[in-house]
Design a protein that fits this description.
74% of the residues lie in helices and 6% in strands. It has 399 residues and is mainly alpha-helical. It has a 3-stranded antiparallel beta sheet with strand order 2-1-3.
Length: 399
């Protein structure tokens, strides 16, 4: 088990970090053996609780903040371990604090920064850790961290663009569902009291009243099922298999597929540019870049391109066999390969692709807004029209 501790040493200095032990008493013994007197000692959960699932994980925003702040501190001449302590003391989020405690403990045991980060490879990714190793070896760690912070900010902005585009249609859809629920559970039951013999009412009147009765009789199960379904979906999205299924399915939809492809192209080009600028070999760069892709088909294409690259073929040729880059970008990459300016070319490809993504998202949003309004108007309007027709037909129904 892993325990988080706060302790003081014999001189009264405060320490905090993490320690591994079989149980709490053994953790206390280890701390005492290291000359520390624990003030607070608690086990770190495995991450399967509800609190860990919602909000107790390090987010992309926090990761970008930590990387940027550490870069700034190192540029100012602060040691790595001291810089991590400063960020940890000024940070209030428990998930990031726990991560920093674990990294600080590894560094105090004599491990390098990249080795300490490598213990959390699921969070940071192979690209992040590989660039850290280069920064340590070359003595240029602040600049490497600054590039990583810029890349994380790039990813954060990309995610923000997509989520912003989906916010308005999602709100419209939610309002539509709530309007339908209100009509079926509050308005229709009042109308149903007019009919003493429902079997004599028109079929559309019977349908809407029966639907209303179903919602009223089983509303607890329906609401519980919706909440449970949302929770189950949130849990399932933590699994890579489910994410891959959504990526593959979404990429087959009109416009949505274009958004996914463009986002993957940005991720690919940005990673290639950053690693080539850091001095990595071309085959190593392509190998690490393939791991940053989220779409399983694109990742498979990139790994196949890596095999061809190692066999002696040109980068522009092997990338032409993938579905990531259109012909225009491939011609630019070929020029960059011939002139030795691949980092600059991939940076330009990423920037141009981002402009393309903004246009695609704008087009998608422009189409979704009227479609959602039509859906809402048609659904709610259909119920209202049915109610009005029922009221008009009341003279034909025995009272």
């Amino acid at each position: 088990m892993e325990f988080e501790y706060k302790a003081i040493d014999n001189s009264g200095a405060r320490h905090q970090g993490t320690i591994e032990a079989n149980d709490k008493p053994q953790a206390q013994q280890k701390l005492v053996a290291d000359g520390l007197h624990p003030i607070e000692l608690k086990a770190i959960t495995s991450g399967t609780t509800l609190a860990d699932l919602f909000g107790q994980k390090v987010t992309l925003d926090q990761l970008e903040f930590f990387t940027s702040e550490l870069s700034l501190l190192l540029e100012s001449g602060v040691r790595v371990d001291k810089g991590i302590d400063i960020i940890r003391q000024s940070n209030a989020h428990p998930a990031l604090s726990r991560l920093l405690n674990q990294i600080a403990s590894s560094i105090k045991k004599g491990e390098s920064l990249s080795d300490a980060f490598a213990k959390h490879e699921t969070l940071f990714g192979p690209l992040y850790i590989s660039l850290l190793k280069i920064g340590e070896t070359s003595g240029n760690l602040p600049e490497v961290l600054n590039r990583l912070a810029a890349d994380l900010k790039f990813q954060k902005d990309l995610r923000s663009q997509i989520s912003t585009a989906l916010t308005y249609p999602s709100v419209i859809f939610f309002v539509c569902i709530m309007a339908v629920y209100f009509v079926l559970t509050f308005i229709v039951p009042k109308m149903a009291g007019i009919f003493t013999d429902l079997e004599q009412a028109p079929w559309y009147t019977q349908m809407i009243i029966n639907t209303s009765n179903f919602f009223i009789d089983y509303q607890v199960l329906i609401v519980g099922g919706v909440i449970g379904g949302i929770g189950l979906l949130a849990y399932a999205l933590q699994k890579s298999e489910v994410k891959n299924w959504f990526y593959v399915t979404g990429s087959k939809l009109p416009l949505v597929g274009n958004v996914i492809t463009t986002a993957e192209r940005i991720r690919f080009a940005q990673s290639m540019s950053m690693m080539l600028e850091a001095g990595l070999q071309l085959d190593t760069t392509l190998e690490l870049t393939s791991e940053t892709l989220k779409h399983p088909d694109f990742k498979r294409d990139a790994k196949q391109a890596l095999k061809q690259l190692k066999s002696g073929k040109q980068l522009s040729f092997v990338l032409s066999k993938t579905r990531i880059f259109p012909d225009f970008f491939l011609s630019i990459i070929k020029v960059g390969e011939e002139t030795g300016r691949l980092p600059r070319v991939f940076s330009e490809v990423a920037n141009r692709s981002r402009t393309d993504l903004e246009q695609v998202i704008k087009k998608l949003t422009t189409m979704l807004e009227p479609l959602m309004l039509l859906f809402m108007g048609g659904f709610v309007g259909g119920i209202v029209i049915t109610m009005l027709m029922s009221m008009v037909s009341i003279n034909d129904v025995p009272l």
